[in-house]
TrEMBL record:
Membrane topology listed for this record: Multi-pass membrane protein
Family listed: Belongs to the TonB-dependent receptor family.
InterPro entries referenced in this protein's UniProt entry, alphabetically: Beta-barrel_TonB, Beta-barrel_TonB_sf, Plug_dom, Plug_dom_sf, TonB-dep_rcpt-like
Taxonomic lineage of the native organism: Bacteria, Pseudomonadati, Pseudomonadota, Betaproteobacteria, Burkholderiales
Locations listed in the record: Cell outer membrane
UniProt keyword terms in alphabetical order: Cell outer membrane, Ion transport, Iron, Iron transport, Membrane, Receptor, Signal, TonB box, Transmembrane, Transmembrane beta strand, Transport
Residues of the TonB-dependent receptor-like beta-barrel domain: 239-647
Chief location of this protein within or outside the cell: membrane
Domain TonB-dependent receptor plug: 50-159
Name of the protein this chain belongs to: TonB-dependent receptor
Signal sequence range: 1-18
């Protein structure tokens, strides 16, 4: 608990600073190169300021000044997040507040992903093979843990809402190119315009990378489009289209000896079996907003997504091989009503989602026949009804209280083709999850907040399918309670500005769903409910802009993201009080940039990541590591250029890994991290 005590001390110091602040309005803590001041931004600021817990906003403008190819890059300066990449160019292992501490990251559950408030995450809570492009957003809102209630998310890690740029909110037409090490090259072209009540914006992209490991090549093409129509002063509607064709090779995992000898090598089975992750995605959506009057609005939306997956993943003939060939269809709807009345700001929402996964699991010979073993026909639906009231009951005090009702079903229907036998686990999951919090406005630019909330997450279809019992039994949902306190804000003194976003949380879970790699079929997992677990941590993002001269033309801008984790079993019959695997005990990511008023910037970056365990028994340790790099660039109103050097010392390190019950010393579970790499990019706005 020393980590929690240190976090409280940090918060106390920040509050003491904030109480001296007497000017300006509450300013958003964002990662951004510029502030656009549009109406969407104001709504985001108001939403964040009215949430009594950890919420971070990432601005898309700032992402174009560094190499961003995945969620790992995008979430670099979001506290409370552990994101790691290494297997492919786009894929990321994503965990927020200890969610998704799974064996293979196969279904990527624990965080609800949305685009403009409409779900990308499937109805069962999985993010299997989701393609969300950070560079195709205007900004992203990361609501950590139970702070995602306003999106209706029933997930341990919370939600990330990606907001799409439009021609009407000032998104520029632009050309973006970048490239560098490991054969990376990418080009994007965006064009848009406004004609009376109609506007449209279209982005086309093409990307290719050879990868820093053998058998890691990626080719991707994408189209992102939206068109809006003002139907009157109070009514507007917008249509969205996304099409992505993504082919990538998977290099597989290595033993520790193989990693030490050559981290750039691919797993022999991955090459022999031609492991791949080929996904074709088509998504259409609509969002309509009716501003009923000055104090109330109604928003309705619907989205439909179809994904075709071709995924050879296990190859050990003649004993066992696995190729997944399925089609996922995902329907999502949302309805939100918001009304302000006196000191109350009321929100009611309804989400409904339905997902089907159909296809089969095949055995195969590379370049030869494919034989279906199991017919797959899995279905899930989910309803989330949520209400929130923000009551300003006294000057500088706001109470935030509400509840969420969740009702969903999951059904697995796997047919053994050879025998006709059907495995059919199915279950319904229902819960009511209350939340209460308070916000104290310490000054116009700083807040103190606290909340206590119930946590709930039902199992995904993949977790039910991989139940360790292997029969028609079903897993239970995870349940728990979390307490959180924190502070955020900014403080101006002379020509200097400091800003902070800190939180401490302490949660207990019952029946957490954990899975470990199946030793009889590497690459697949076995899932089970465990007893009591603890999820606690400290999250802090602290930065400054310090004037180095009287005119403020020369500035020094340090930024550091510190996350301390305490994830562990509590008096478990098998694992006692062992630490949960996968997530490091601490991460520190930061930079110190010099900026000149002319638009020049440069400075070092650094990463410090603590050790991790790769098994529940805590017998296999993955070492800590430290990296450093450099960033530089030049910006003008019309064009920008940047260069980024990563892992300058070319250190060998493990990015992420599979989890075992007891990992043998020669287990092939490690995914190497990126070696020394140099990237450059340019952007032209017109």
């Amino acid at each position: 608990m020393r980590a929690l005590a240190a976090g409280l001390a940090t918060i106390s110091c920040a509050i003491a600073q904030a109480q001296d602040t007497t000017e300006n309005t509450l300013e958003q803590v964002t990662i951004s190169a510029e502030r656009d001041g549009d109406q969407s931004r104001k709504q985001v600021e108001a939403e964040r300021a009215a949430t009594p817990g950890g919420v971070t906003v990432v601005e898309g403008e700032g992402l174009r000044l560094r190499n961003v190819t995945s969620l790992t890059d995008m979430l670099r300066y979001v506290p409370g997040v552990w994101a790691a990449s290494g297997s492919t160019g786009d894929s990321s292992f994503l965990s927020i507040r200890g969610s998704n501490l799974d064996a293979t990251n196969y279904d990527g559950n624990g965080v609800k992903l949305l685009i403009d408030g409409l779900p990308v995450t499937a109805a069962d809570g999985s993010n299997h093979n989701r393609d969300v492009d950070p560079l195709s957003m205007r900004r992203a809102i990361v609501a950590r843990g139970a702070n995602a209630l306003t999106y209706g998310a029933s997930t341990l890690g919370g939600a990330i809402n990606f907001i799409t740029p439009t021609a009407r909110d000032g998104a520029p037409s632009e050309a973006v190119i970048n490239g560098g090490s490991h054969g990376q090259r990418q080009a994007r072209f965006t064009v848009g315009g406004v004609a009376g009540n109609f506007d449209a914006l279209v982005t086309a992209e093409a990307k290719r990378s050879d990868g820093f490991r053998d058998h890691q090549r990626q080719e991707r093409q994408g189209l992102y489009a939206n068109a809006g129509l003002q139907l009157g002063e109070a009514l507007s509607t917008r249509f969205y289209l996304t099409s992505i064709d993504n082919d990538q090779q998977l290099p597989g995992t290595l033993t520790r000896a193989q990693f030490n000898a050559n981290p750039r090598a691919a797993q022999a089975a991955a090459v022999a079996g031609n492991y791949r992750l080929n996904v074709r995605t088509l998504r259409v959506a609509n969002r309509t907003v009716w501003d009923i009057d000055a104090d109330s609005s109604l928003t309705a939306g619907i989205s439909f997504e179809k994904q075709k997956l071709y995924h050879p993943i296990v190859y050990a003939p003649p004993f066992f091989s696995l190729l997944i060939d399925t089609t996922l269809r995902n329907l999502g709807t949302t309805l939100r009503y918001q009304r302000r009345a006196g000191d109350h700001d009321f929100l009611a929402g309804l989400n409904y989602g339905r997902t089907s996964v159909k296809g089969g699991n095949y055995s195969y010979v590379t370049g030869g026949p494919q034989t279906i073993n199991t017919g797959v026909d899995n279905n899930a639906d989910n309803v989330e009804l949520f209400v929130v009231d923000r009551w300003k009951f006294a000057p500088q005090w706001t109470a935030v209280y509400g509840a969420q009702m969740v009702s969903g079903s999951r059904e697995i229907r796997n047919t053994n083709v050879a025998t006709g036998a059907v495995r059919n686990p199915k279950a319904d999951f229902d819960s009511i999850n209350p939340r209460i919090g308070v916000i104290r406005e310490l000054s116009p630019t700083a807040q103190l907040f606290a909340n206590v909330s119930r946590l709930y997450e039902a199992p995904t279809l993949y977790e039910l399918d991989d139940d360790v019992r292997g029969n028609n039994s079903t897993l239970d949902a995870m349940r728990g309670v979390v307490l959180e306190v924190g502070t955020r804000g900014s403080h101006m003194f002379d020509r200097h500005r400091v800003h902070w976003d800190t939180a401490v949380y302490y949660g207990r879970l019952n029946g957490e769903i954990l899975s470990r790699d199946d030793p009889n079929a590497p690459g697949t997992s076995l899932s089970t409910n465990v007893g009591k677990t603890l999820h606690a941590g400290v999250e802090a993002l602290v930065g400054a802009s310090l004037a180095m001269d009287g005119a403020g033309a020369h500035r020094l801008e340090p930024l550091v993201n510190i996350t301390l984790n305490q994830f562990e079993f509590k008096n478990d019959s098998s694992y006692r009080n062992n630490r949960l695997p996968a997530a490091p005990r601490y991460t520190i990511k930061g930079e110190v940039l010099y900026r000149h008023a002319s638009g020049i910037f440069f400075g070092p970056t650094f990463d410090v990541v603590g050790r991790r365990f790769a098994d529940f028994s805590n017998t296999y340790t993955v070492d800590s590591y430290s990296l450093w790099g450099l960033r530089a660039g030049y910006t003008t109103p019309q064009w920008e250029v940047y260069a980024e050097l990563r892992n300058a010392s070319n250190k060998k390190y493990v990015s992420y890994f599979s989890v075992r019950d007891i990992a043998a010393a020669n287990a092939a579970i490690l995914t190497p991290g990126e070696p020394r790499s140099l990237y450059m990019g340019a952007r032209l706005k017109f």
